[in-house]
């Protein structure tokens, strides 16, 4: 080989080796370790994929978030309904879930899996102080492909889903319809039931729907709504003579 070619190849190899060493992903001070990366590392094992089976044998996919280390998972009611199914945790085989409580009118449900160990829990935050424009992360199981994350901002802290135009609603300031968090992080079928996360790594909403005829218009049930109805949702002993073994501190 030409001596000049040998020198050039050796030099390039050294440059690539040095460059790879400088951008090592394990360097906690490197530019690649952003706050977003840190949050995802903290919570990614607390986001789960949910799969249910319809009466026709079809498989439906959704998402959920672990809210208790004993295996309790928060999700949408339309994700599980009265159907049997499985939950996928990272590093574990499929685990069959049982339904602990449902609140169809608020599209909320809690299911439970037999915890193989103490599970990663996503801390629950509050949604009453959300600011338009603050960053958020959406975690879930779009298309049934497993857990992925997207990022964006809070587009509106309180918006009415499927409402008439604002000009019409301006005449109904005291209506009692539910409000949702609108966000623009990518969300697709299968994300339903997954967590909406703030910059503190806390869950502030439950992803519930999207506007199909517009771009990046996605909705989440505010976490304050979950807190408001937590007794009806996770206290099935009131109606089924069953102790679930889980409580939520509304002040947390």
Write a short abstract of this structure:
The protein has 252 residues and is of the alpha+beta class. The protein has helices at 3-22, 35-43, 77-80, 166-169, 223-228, 230-234, 237-240; strands at 47-53, 59-68, 72-75, 85-88, 95-96, 98-103, 108-112, 135-140, 148-159, 180-183, 195-197, 203-210, 218-222.
Keywords:
252 residues, alpha+beta, seven-stranded antiparallel beta sheet, six-stranded antiparallel β-barrel, 7 helices, 13 strands, globular
How would you explain this protein's 3D organization?
This protein has 252 residues and is α+β, with helices and mostly antiparallel strands. It is 21% helix and 30% strand. The protein is built from seven helices and 13 strands. It has helices at 3-22, 35-43, 77-80, 166-169, 223-228, 230-234, 237-240; strands at 47-53, 59-68, 72-75, 85-88, 95-96, 98-103, 108-112, 135-140, 148-159, 180-183, 195-197, 203-210, 218-222. Strands 5-4-1-2-3-7-6 form a seven-stranded antiparallel β-sheet. It has a six-stranded antiparallel barrel with strand order 8-9-10-13-12-11. Strand 12 and strand 13 form a beta hairpin. The chain is globular.
Structural class: alpha+beta
The string of secondary-structure elements, in order, is HHEEEHEEEEEEHEEEEHHH
Shape: globular
Return Rg in Å.
22 Å
Mean pLDDT: 86
Oligomeric category: single chain
Instruction: Quickly count the helices.
Output: 7
Overall helicity: 10-25%
Give the end-to-end Cα distance, rounded to a whole number of Å.
69 Å
Strand order of the largest sheet: 5-4-1-2-3-7-6
Record field, number of beta strands: 13
Low-pLDDT segments: none
Sheet bearing the most strands, described? 7 strands, antiparallel
Question: What share of the residues does DSSP label as strand, in percent?
Answer: 25-35%
């Amino acid at each position: 080989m030409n001596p000049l070619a040998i020198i050039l190849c050796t030099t390039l190899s050294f440059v690539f080796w040095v460059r790879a060493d400088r951008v090592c992903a394990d360097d906690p001070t490197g530019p690649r370790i952003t706050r977003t990366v840190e949050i995802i590392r903290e919570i990614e094992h607390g986001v789960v994929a949910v799969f249910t089976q319809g009466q026709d044998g079809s498989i439906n996919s959704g998402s959920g978030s672990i809210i208790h280390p004993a295996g309790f998972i928060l999700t949408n009611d339309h994700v599980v309904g009265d159907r049997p199914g499985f939950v996928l945790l990272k590093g574990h085989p499929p685990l069959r879930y049982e339904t602990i409580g449902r609140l169809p009118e608020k599209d909320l449900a809690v299911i439970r899996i037999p915890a193989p160990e103490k599970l990663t829990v996503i801390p629950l935050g509050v949604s009453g102080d959300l600011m338009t424009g603050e960053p958020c992360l959406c975690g879930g199981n779009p298309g049934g492909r497993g857990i992925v994350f997207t990022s964006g901002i809070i587009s509106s802290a309180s918006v009415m889903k499927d409402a008439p135009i604002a000009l019409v609603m301006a005449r109904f300031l005291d209506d009692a319809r539910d409000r949702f968090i609108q966000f623009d992080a990518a969300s697709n079928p299968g994300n339903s039931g997954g967590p909406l996360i703030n910059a503190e790594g806390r869950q502030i909403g439950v992803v519930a729907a999207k506007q199909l005829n517009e771009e990046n218009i996605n909705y989440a049930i505010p976490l304050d709504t979950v807190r408001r109805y937590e007794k009806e949702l996770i206290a099935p002993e009131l109606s089924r003579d069953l102790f679930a073994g889980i409580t939520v501190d509304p002040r947390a």
